[in-house]
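Hey, weird one. I pasted the inositol-phosphate phosphatase sequence into the form twice and got a warning about non-standard characters only the second time. First submission, copied straight from the form history:
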Amino acid sequence: MDLEALVAEASAVLDYAVEPFLSGHRAESAVSKKGNDFATEVDLAIERQVVDALVKATGIEVHGEEFGGADVESPWVWVLDPVDGTFNYAAGSPLAGILLGLLRDGEPVAGLTWLPFIGTRYTAVVGGPLMKDGEPQPALEPASLADALIGAGSFSADSRGRFPGRYRVAVLENLSRLSSRFRMHGSTGLDLAYVADGILGGAISFGSHVWDHAAGVALVRAAGGIVTDLAGEPWVPASKSALAAAPGVHAEILEILRSTGQPEDY
């Protein structure tokens, strides 16, 4: 497969999705999902549009957030999140985007992150470099946690589940002793793209959805960053969390995570 050609085809497909994405801002909930999550009509319409166009243009099947599709362990599969940051999108925040990753046997080999309200498009293929609005970006340099902005997902302190709220509070409390520069953007895809771009030094995701991570993992790795789960194992589609960071910052955050203890202790 010619990855550059596939990314070019996929870029054109996402460009056609920008207009409905922009025009649907503040769309109301159309489909209730687990917990208090939901999907808007825009999520559903963009997924249908992008899936149809991608299959026709590239011949590769798609796994989407809203309708599922091909197995993410397929030899080749696109992984799509039509509206990442749905709460932001519905509320009128510009911090939302379209995420598209390409997996080969479960390995992210290309990523596209479109941030239409900000007017920024990120792409990358395995081996790099990160491309921002068509221009190659410098590789990430080793950095220090004390000097870095860190992205983290929002949560309730009283939530349970795989990573209880009290555990998340403890992680952020311990991180704050070295860096008080936390940012909660409400969009995992944006956080990962910003790590790749060097805007954030690192980002922690307590989520497990492959469509939130596939595109960004490809971007960060292409930029020279490191992506694992919170236990330090390399990120794979079945991972239940993600830690993406520049060299140096990743090691410091991982050490803090390990010193915080196990989530089940909370």
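That's the output from the first submission. The warning seems to come from a hidden character in my clipboard, not from the data itself. Residues 3-23 form the longest helix (21 residues).
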